[in-house]
Amino acid sequence: MTAYVIVDIEVKNPEGYAHYKDLAQTTVPLYGGKYIARGGPAEGLEGDWKPGRIVILEFPSTAQAKAWLNSPEYAPARKLRHQYAVSRSIVVEGLEKP
Predict the structure, then answer these.
(1) Considering 16, 50, 74, 87, which has the largest number of Cβ atoms within 10 A of its Cβ?
(2) What contacts 65, CB < 8 A, 6 or more positions away?
(3) What are phi and psi of 86, to 5 degrees?
(4) What are phi and psi of 44, to 5 degrees?
């Protein structure tokens, strides 16, 4: 079942984070993933959530999303993300297609 990784990112160092983006984007397709949204304008609709940079990725399954996140290919980029930003992420399964 399709899965979505949703990440709320607070960039602390834009120059360093730019290097992260360059590394990360090459790893996503290796695990069947693709970007759905990447840092466009985000507007809160309800509640007190004040999102930073929102990224949404689609993967064929939760297992594939987790495999990407923990992969050796993504590891160098992940280390940079932790260095240059604070992020919160979830994975959620999509609806079954009829």
Answers:
(1) 74
(2) 3, 4, 5, 31, 33, 57, 59, 91
(3) -110, 130
(4) -65, 140
Q: What is the pTM of this model?
A: 0.92
CA distance 75 to 69: 8
Best CA proximity match to 34, nearest among 68, 76, 80, 84: 68
- What are the helix and strand counts (H, E) for the chain? 3, 4
Q: Which domains does the chain have, with CATH numbers?
A: 3-42+51-93 (3.30.70.100)
Query: Helices 14-27 and 75-84, interaxial angle, to 10°?
Result: 160
List pLDDT tens digits, range 20-49: 999 999 999 999 999 999 988 888 899 998
